[in-house]
Amino acid sequence: MFIETLINPVLLFPLESWWSGGEMVFLFLAFVVSFITVTNLAMVKLLGIYNKEHRCLFTLVILFVFFNTNIYNEIFYWFVGSSYLMALTLGIITIGLTIKLFFDEKMSWVIVLSVSGAVACNFFQAAILPGMVYIVLWCWNSIKNHRFLWKKTIPFWFMFTSGLIAVGAPGNYVRHAHMDSSVNIGKACIDATRMMMIILKHLLQQPLVIALLIFCVYIGIRYTKKRINGRVLLLTFFLSMLTLLLNSFPIALGYGGISYMPNRIYFLLDSTALIGLSVTGICLGRYVKSQSWYKECNSVYLELMMAGSVCLLLYSTEVYNHNINNLPWFQTLQYTKEVKQLHDSWIECLVTIRDAEEDTVEVVMDQGTDSSSILALPRISDQENEWVNLAVADFFGKKSVIVRIREE
Known about the structure:
There is one protein chain. By secondary structure, the chain is mainly alpha-helical. Helices cover about 70% and strands about 5% of the residues. The chain is built from 19 helices and two strands. It has helices at about 1-5, 10, 20-45, 50-65, 75-80, 85-105, 110-120, 130-145, 155-165, 170-175, 185-205, 205-220, 230-255, 265-290, 290-295, 300-315, 330-335, 335-355, 385-395, and strands at about 360-365, 400-405. A two-stranded parallel sheet has the order 1-2. β1, α19 (about 385-395) and β2 form a beta-alpha-beta unit. α6 (about 85-105) runs antiparallel to α7 (about 110-120), α11 (about 185-205) packs across α13 (about 230-255) and α12 runs antiparallel to α16 (about 300-315). The longest helix is centred in the first third of the chain and has 27 residues, at about 20-45. The two termini are about 45 Å apart.
């Protein structure tokens, strides 16, 4: 995060420079590419799916569902621009390196994994997922080899120590002091459980997410080689839910409750939940594959049943008819003109503040420029003591900045 701040184009180029947007596009693409790479690696090493076309199809379905389920309007401006997505990307890369360490049996990965894991887990809200994956793979390989693989625990201790440093950072307690008078571990556990249930309920109400789970079950039946028993299936589901719960805990603790959760937090928790549900769906397919009644079924019936289930689901929910206005890709196209107008209005406002000769600046803007259903606005208000106003004033070297909305 320090490195990203030092090379941030916002500090190096004028306000209107496109370099800032270019940097955020690059970071977001890095996240998508790392996600695709690790997904393919997991399918080869963990599931034994070697067919490239099958892996591409599976990855495409996962990305399509994830990016068409919710709109996260804080991600590009906050999650990406504030280095959070860089930490999450490093967490995904750490998962990929963990898979290579345990399946390629090359101890040279230990050093690289120790560094990437320490950096990724310093952002503790994204540290749970790579840490859980590491623990599970270490336990599984230790059991398979009938001995504890002590040397391969080295990266985990770097990850764990880095996470503790992040949790103990003074800034966490300063922010919490503004929201609650005391740290209540018991209440945070309850809030984390409630938060987990809210995330699962919301996702499982989305037709595309249910279609993804059906597809994951199909992948587990048709394209994985190894079968599993019921205990492994239950353990997989338990670990997936435990990861989501542990990811929710520091958020519940830091915000002092779940009365308000920023949109970027849902991005993080939805990512964790979808990964866990997808893995559980694949394991369910592998479990079905091991059942005697499945062996007697004609494979053609499986394709017909799965495809029919998805078509019936989408038709019954009318996801591409009456509900099309709620799909992120449709809203993105629908609000393109609004985004352009709001962008131009706020850039003009910022330029006015920058070029003003007086130290006390007041800008009047038109109705409708103070809210957006898809865009994260600068949030400069008519209260000069608000932290956003103070930050903008300090950035442009002004005494105070106020933005008022013109009354009709």
